[in-house]
Amino acid sequence: MTRVLVPGSFDPITHGHMDIITRCSALFDEVVVGVGDNLAKRYLFSRHKRVELARQSVAQLDNVMVQPIDGLLATWCQEHHIDVIAKGLRSAMDASFELPQATVNRNLADIETILLATHPSLAHVSSTIVKEVAANGGDVSAMVDTHVSDALMSTILASSGGDGAHDE
User: Fold this and answer.
1) 85 phi, psi to nearest 5 deg
2) What does the angle CA 100 – CA 112 – CA 127 come to, to the nearest 5 degrees?
3) DSSP at 123
4) Average pLDDT of the segment spanning 114-124
5) Is 121 designated active site?
6) Average pLDDT over residues 107-117
7) Among the options 9, 15, 17, 131, which is catalytic?
8) Residue 127 is among the residues annotated as catalytic for this protein
9) pLDDT at 78 over 90
10) How far apart are CA 49 and CA 103, in angstroms?
11) Which residue of 10, 81, 121, 156 is surrounded by the most CB atoms within 10 Å?
């Protein structure tokens, strides 16, 4: 059985993420969506909430599970018997970030990384853009599932005192 990890911070999970996850579910026996923290990022949602939203998004995919991940990715993959890491690419800029990481993971844990091009219709979608659009009252329904949109609006309204503004 081949296990693939689709890692990310998923703050929040988007249709772009789901494109990669769904394609991996057709290519691999088991898909683990790993929700982690990046020390360089500030999050709108707690990791617990990001895991919850991801689980709701992948619920219809029988061979996909969601788990929080901690520590060094290569070590986590070894401890959880992950065979492959899969990442999505929206642009050449993503590739310039992902390729060195793939090399490090290969050197540390002899784990392969595959890079999947995101569907062209989703290449503009990122968690950052989704949060920015939502914070400014825009419609994000073409970029995230309804439960994610609802959570975004609820969190943004709560953090702004109810007027829809959000400082980040």
Assistant:
1) -105, 135
2) 60
3) T
4) 95
5) no
6) 95
7) 17
8) yes
9) yes
10) 31
11) 10
